[in-house]
């Protein structure tokens, strides 16, 4: 750490070193799914319909992921508090929910990107 670096910037740097590769990995996985689904649907649909369907499904995954991710962040402590109050242990934690929906959101984004790229490659 340099003299002018604050502890907050060091923590942010550590978080970014973990989050950026993870987001890139799930983005790549989603893009592969988007391309594979678009190409797979070419067997039964027109190129435009195949890429449109793949794009719509990816957008559905992305939308669900972002909505659930924000809900986990906003209501996570409340849900954990209710579980503790009711003495119910389901194993659900705010951190695990955020991680799961992080994966779903970035995969959905990659899926949409892969479907759009396939559409461009097919010229539709």
TrEMBL record:
Keywords: Membrane, Transmembrane, Transmembrane helix. The chain crosses the membrane at residues 23-44, 56-76, 100-122. Pfam families: DUF7268. This is Uncharacterized protein. It comes from Halobacterium litoreum.
């Amino acid at each position: 750490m340099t003299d002018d670096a604050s502890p907050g910037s060091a923590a942010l740097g550590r978080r970014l070193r973990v989050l950026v590769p993870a987001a890139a990995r799930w983005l790549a996985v989603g893009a592969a799914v988007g391309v594979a689904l678009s190409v797979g649907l070419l067997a039964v649909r027109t190129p435009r319909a195949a890429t449109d369907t793949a794009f719509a499904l990816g957008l559905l995954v992305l939308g669900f992921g972002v909505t659930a991710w924000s809900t986990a962040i906003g209501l996570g402590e409340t849900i954990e508090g209710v579980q503790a109050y009711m003495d119910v242990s389901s194993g659900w934690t705010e951190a695990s929910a955020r991680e799961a929906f992080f994966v779903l959101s970035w995969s959905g984004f990659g899926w949409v990107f892969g479907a759009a790229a396939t559409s461009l490659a097919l010229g539709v």
